[in-house]
Design a protein that fits this description.
Largest sheet of chain B: 7 strands, mixed
Distance between the termini of chain B: 32 Å
Chains: A mainly alpha, B alpha+beta, C mainly alpha
Shape of chain B: globular
Largest sheet of chain A: none
Order of helices and strands of chain A: HHHHHHHHHHHH
Number of domains of chain A: 2
Distance between the termini of chain A: 6 Å
Number of strands of chain A: 0
Strand content of chain A: under 5%
Radius of gyration of chain B: 23 Å
Strand content of chain B: 15-25%
Helix content of chain B: 25-40%
Shape of chain A: globular
Oligomer: heterotrimer
Structural class of chain B: alpha+beta
Helix content of chain A: over 70%
Number of strands of chain B: 19
């Protein structure tokens, strides 16, 4: 186990480098001059563009730019935006907000999705099963911006139950609806996958044996069935935190949350490569760590899987 | 020209004009309760400024708005759109429109307590014009004598390997400090409109503190000389402003604190406005405009106004398919502007019928004969021009809401002329703009113009004169150039306007661009605000707010 | 699936009697030893026999067929014009002459919904198929081979997964579809498909890999290997059928989510665009008018939900038929 962990940690290094380079290269290759859109329909004076190009070394080849970026990064320097802001500041202010939102979304999708999945998996084809199937389908089928817009309008403006936008303090109560919106599609996936998995495992030999042994149903379900059925669900949940954080652009916009999604979108549009990479670097770290945890959890959940 | 940087959904709003007192103020004469106003605080919407707040380096509305409040210039533009009036200037005198003697009011203060002197202007302008400083508004100083010595162009463009040569001088020879309260500006050629330009943010004074630090440091906590000073700027959250108690000019604050809350999304701001959590929103979101819902939502708190900004579709005249003026006019005549503004903008914008926005001093209303809707004439002109082969693309930047009206225009060209016209969205403004700057457009494209300063000159020289800073389609007519030059050099504003009117007549024959609509602005305020006015460009005049 | 009759369609045994799991199937399928004696077609044949008896399958298949015909021959359903409009009809409510009303540009919503089926279905289906094929293959290889192959493939997947979806799409689409170029209908669709698949395959791979990991130590695989079955045979005949179920469930859901993703990309202004018509474009166009003309949002959404529903129901039916354990 220790060796496995070490190997995995070592493997993080190439992934980290690969991802950051991929991002850097992608943003770098987006067409358009970063300063072309800065001054509105008038266009920027050439001197301004020349100065900025030189200041940010945009003349250098991508390799040189990437290398110097990584060098600074390892010294803890994320660089500055074209507007002169410290990128580490942007990350420090926007990250906690997105993380809070994503954690709330994850909690909501785990509780509701898993609950619905287990219930329907155990009692298939009942009224509840169909209700859950229909509602998950709707959640999957409707784009996030439609769900968000409708909930915000109905709950926030029409009925006044919630604040239509999240305040800067990011109170937990304000995040429930945005979290639900963000996690809605994943919630539906969780419910469906959990349902399938449980329904399948119900027919597995070990469950039959457990029932035949005369174990109480609660124990059969709680210990044998759930533990084995949760593996694919854990995969989804574990990898979802990263996806939720990276995918919060629309939700953050609707509810006015100052998170990384908005920062990334804005930075792509203005070709602020350093900001995009900086934010994504942290995202990638979160994602890699979650992945590692998921893999370790496999072993804990499923005795058939052994790492050596 | 400032550009709105709201990431999505926002109308390309920016400028406005009109005096608007809110509906609530009709009942009592002075508007509000002075007691409530005196220590009153409001929260208004805004966007994160892109750059540190340095007046000559700000070209977008998020930061521009703050600059307009934190600084006071030599002249101010009255809220009713009238001719500029002296603010910080005691007098601006000239006999030949070439040499201007500027006298400023004595003993006005910067927010750090230092005095605003003639030198504060001269040094600020020299800094902005000096090429290597790379100020975004550098070109505003090109009228001044000696600009060419401080601002050198890169010989092969910014993308070429060569660098711009080091400028010969650090200061423009046309600027001369006489004493603490007087300075003299000499222009390289007579320019009647020069005093009008002086209210634009590029011409603001800077305190000595600016030169003791870096622009980036200064811009985080700028020191201006306006009615409010900046208390704190928390990135992406809010900018706190408070009344500057030593302010001695006309426009003093009636309330105390103003918090500019930074929103990522205008719908979020609108919802706060409806819930009375926000006291003012400059432009309500598109989704609330449909069916005039915003008027029902806000009732008496809704403010409808017009702004001196025009939506334009431009031709790349460097593309030989668009060189024939008859073709250009045919396309222009085939567009039913009334239908577009009625159905797409719900009547909130007006069909364009003149070349300069009619709110601008010196603009003649209705002088665009090519802006009529006349299908028969359009068809005939198209036939005379020999038709149009292939696909006609109308590009727009898809990161702001231009899709609907561009599609509607393309549809009308298609229906009325039988040209295969299609609206094409370019994902980002940066890409869109890069193509325009590099003269790589292969079809028509969306443009927009909002005045920097209120004079018709601002609608002609940058757009339709050969080599003009925003003449992106490379339109060139020597007669127009000559008339515009004469007009700019005219001894008085009135004569300048006459000459510009002649130039416009020629432009009207050539149809280098197609004006489509005149912008409007739809704002809203909370129940708390009893009285407010909007500036000539549609921003909130915070000094007018009463509670 | 609000129709109560569908509740009885799925011919699975009562939940409390798991021991009767095999009763629904006519043949003695489900035992790997017997499956081994049949050709691969035998398994599919069984599945087909099973499927034929399920109304759920027929209903969803009929809907999907309808959508596919709609996508292939939209003119069969409408003689209207999906692309051209007239502003005087802007946002006219549904009536007997125009069943679904007119959109803001005065275009017939009914025609647009019909023509929109093509882009939405093609994009979602092709992306799903590409994603499943590629991600599934990678997952099997990684899970089955293990060792350094697994490590390398998993790390490559990590790199792509680390890329936020919208970021990746924006970059791919702006790079190839940006610069004011006026790409044809199929080019734009191809690019959207490409960006959806490139950014989604790691999910499928992880799912497949974890299934394979869980299955490959199963007795029947060990037995098959002991009996001298080759790698290809084990993968095709034993691993694949047993790991297919979660993949199919995910795949059917993916069709729906891709339709939504396509809409999100259009919403951000980087996805499909005119002259292409898609439900996603229609939904994103409608959102500014949700308060005054909700029908503009309703009709494309209704088609979209129906299509998604059909795919998921089909997936459900196929899964139960394919999975030996559920027979």
């Amino acid at each position: 186990m220790g060796r496995y962990l070490l190997r995995r940690l070592l493997q993080l290094v190439p992934v980290f480098i690969g991802t950051t380079f991929l991002i850097y290269w992608l943003v770098w290759s987006v067409p358009g001059d970063p300063f072309a859109g800065k001054c509105g329909d008038r266009g920027c004076p050439p001197n301004y563009r020349a100065m900025m190009t030189e200041k940010y070394h945009l003349d250098d080849s991508i390799w040189v730019q990437y290398a110097s970026y990584m060098k600074n990064l390892f010294q803890g320097d994320f660089g500055i935006t074209f507007g002169g802001r410290e990128i580490s500041d942007i990350i420090a202010t926007s990250y906690p907000n997105t993380l809070k939102l994503a954690v709330v979304a994850l909690a909501i999708e785990a509780v509701i999705g898993l609950g619905a999945g287990i219930l329907t998996g155990l009692r298939r084809n009942g009224f509840l099963d169909n209700l859950v199937l229909v509602s998950t389908l709707f959640l999957i089928a409707l784009p996030v911006f439609v769900i968000g817009f409708v909930l915000q309008w109905v709950l926030g403006v029409k009925w006044g139950i919630i604040n239509p936008t999240v305040s800067n303090e990011m109170r937990f109560s304000e995040l429930i609806v945005p979290g639900f919106v963000l996690g809605s599609a994943s919630m539906a996936y969780i419910a469906r996958v959990a349902r399938t998995s449980i329904a399948e495992n119900r027919r597995a030999d070990y469950v039959r044996t457990a029932i035949a042994k005369g174990l109480p149903m609660r124990r059969v379900v709680g210990v044998h069935l759930l533990r084995n059925s949760l593996i694919p669900v854990v995969t989804l949940l574990g990898t979802d935190l990263g996806a939720l954080m990276g995918g919060a652009i629309v939700t953050e916009g609707i509810f006015g949350i100052n998170g990384i999604g908005r920062q990334v979108l804005r930075s792509i549009v203005t070709k602020e490569s350093a900001t995009v990479v900086g934010i994504v670097v942290v995202l990638v770290v979160v994602y890699l760590v979650m992945n590692l945890l998921v893999d370790l959890l496999y072993a804990a959940l499923d005795p058939r899987i052994r790492y050596e | 020209m400032r550009v709105s940087k709201r990431a999505s959904g926002a109308l390309a709003v920016g400028a406005a004009f009109a005096l608007v007192a809110s509906g609530c103020s009709s009942g009592n004469n002075d508007g509000g309760d002075t007691g409530a106003s005196k220590d009153g605080a409001i929260v208004i919407d805004g966007t994160q400024p892109e750059n540190p707040l340095v007046p000559s380096n700000t070209t977008e509305t998020g930061g521009g708005k703050i600059i307009d409040w934190v600084w006071s210039g030599l002249v101010e533009y009255p809220n009713n759109g009238g001719a500029p009036q002296n603010l910080l200037a005691e007098s601006i005198d000239t006999s030949d429109s070439k040499v201007f003697k500027i006298k400023i009011k004595q003993n006005t203060k910067f927010h750090d307590g230092t005095t605003v002197k003639a030198e504060s202007f001269v040094k600020a302008w020299n800094w902005a014009a000096y090429g290597p400083n790379g100020a975004q508004n550098a070109s505003f100083f090109s009228d001044i004598q000696g600009f060419g010595d401080v601002y050198t162009e890169d010989p092969d463009g910014p993308d070429g390997p060569k660098k711009a040569p080091e400028p010969k001088a650090k200061e423009m020879s046309g600027l001369k400090v006489v004493d603490d309260w007087n300075f003299e500006v000499t222009l390289s050629a007579p320019t009647a409109v020069f005093p009008t330009k002086l209210g634009y943010s590029a011409f603001m004074p800077l305190p000595d503190a600016f030169f003791a630090t870096t622009p980036a440091e200064f811009g985080k906590k700028p020191i201006g000389n306006g009615p409010v000073k900046l208390v704190a700027w928390q990135d992406d959250v809010e900018i706190k402003l408070t009344r500057f108690d030593d302010y001695s000019l006309r426009d003093k604050m009636k309330i105390k604190d103003v918090t500019v809350k930074i929103y990522q999304d205008d719908t979020a701001a609108y919802n706060d406005l409806l819930a009375n959590n926000l006291d003012f929103q400059q432009q309500v979101p598109v989704s609330s405009l449909a069916g005039d819902k915003w008027k029902t939502d806000l009732g008496e708190r809704a403010i409808q106004t017009t702004v001196p900004s025009t939506g334009i579709i431009a031709f790349p005249i460097y593309d030989k398919r668009f060189t024939n003026p008859k073709l250009r006019k045919a396309i222009s005549l085939s567009i039913d502007r009334q239908a577009v503004t009625d159905k797409i903008f719900f009547g909130n914008r007006k069909p364009a019928d003149s070349w300069a926005n009619p709110l601008t001093p010196g603009a003649e209303p209705g002088n665009c004969t090519a802006c009529k809707f006349d299908v028969a004439q359009a068809k005939q002109l198209l036939q005379e021009a020999g038709g149009f082969q292939g696909k006609l693309t109308l590009s727009y930047n898809a990161d702001a809401s231009h899709k609907e009206w561009m599609e509607a225009v393309a549809q009308q060209i298609k229906t009325n002329l039988g040209i295969d016209a299609v609206a094409v969205g370019v994902p980002t403004f940066a890409v869109f703009r890069a193509n325009i700057n590099n003269y790589k457009m292969t079809g028509m494209y969306r443009a927009g113009w909002q005045q920097d300063y209120p004079d018709v000159e601002n609608w002609i020289n940058p757009l339709y004169v050969t080599g003009g800073s925003s003449n992106d389609g490379k339109y060139s007519n020597p007669q127009v150039d000559a008339l515009a030059k004469e007009a700019s050099a005219a001894p008085s504003i009135e004569e300048a306007h006459k000459k510009f009117a002649e130039a416009v007549k020629l432009i009207d024959q050539d149809v280098p661009t197609i004006p489509i609509y005149f912008s409007g602005e739809q704002s809203g305020h909370s129940e708390k605000i009893k009285k407010l006015e909007l500036t000539n460009v549609g921003e909130l005049d915070i000094t007018s707010v009463e509670l | 699936m609000s129709d109560p009759s569908t509740a009885s369609i799925v011919s699975t045994p009562p939940a409390t009697m798991p021991t009767e799991a095999g009763s629904g199937a006519p043949t003695n399928a489900g035992l790997p030893e017997s499956a081994k004696q049949q050709k691969p077609r035998g398994l599919l044949g069984d599945a087909w026999l099973d499927l034929r008896r399920k109304p759920l399958f027929w209903i969803s298949a009929a809907f999907i067929l309808l959508f596919i015909v709609m996508a292939a021959f939209p003119a069969l359903f409408t003689s209207g014009d999906a692309v051209n409009g007239a502003l005087e009809r802007s946002r006219v409510e549904p009536s007997s002459s125009a069943w679904f009303g007119y959109d803001v540009q005065g275009r017939d919503v009914y025609s647009r919904v019909i023509y929109g089926a093509r882009a939405s279905i093609v994009v979602a289906l092709v992306s799903t198929i590409l994603t499943l094929l590629f991600g599934g293959a990678m997952g099997i290889i990684a899970g089955y081979r293990g060792g350094w192959v697994d490590a390398v493939l998993s790390r490559v997947a990590d790199i792509f997964f680390g890329l936020p979806f919208v970021l990746g799409s924006i970059v791919i689409l702006t790079t190839f579809n940006g610069s004011g170029t006026d790409n044809g209908e199929w080019t734009i669709m191809g690019l959207v498909i490409l960006s959806l698949s490139v950014l989604s395959w790691p999910v499928v791979m992880r799912l497949m890999r974890s299934s394979v990991l869980a299955t490959k130590e199963a007795d029947y695989i060990v037995a098959a290997r002991a009996l001298g079955a080759g790698t290809g045979r084990i993968i095709l005949k034993h691993l694949l059928p047993n790991c297919l179920a979660p993949l199919l469930v995910y795949g059917t859901i993916m069709v729906g989510s891709f339709i939504g993703a396509e809409a999100t990309l259009s919403f951000l202004g980087i996805g499909l665009k005119s002259p292409v018509v898609s439900w996603g474009i229609m939904i994103s166009e409608a959102q500014n008018y949700i308060r005054v003309s909700p029908f503009l949002l309703f009709f494309p959404s209704a088609f979209l939900v129906t299509a998604v529903l059909s795919f998921v129901m089909l997936g459900e039916a196929v899964r139960e038929a394919l999975d030996p354990k559920l027979r």
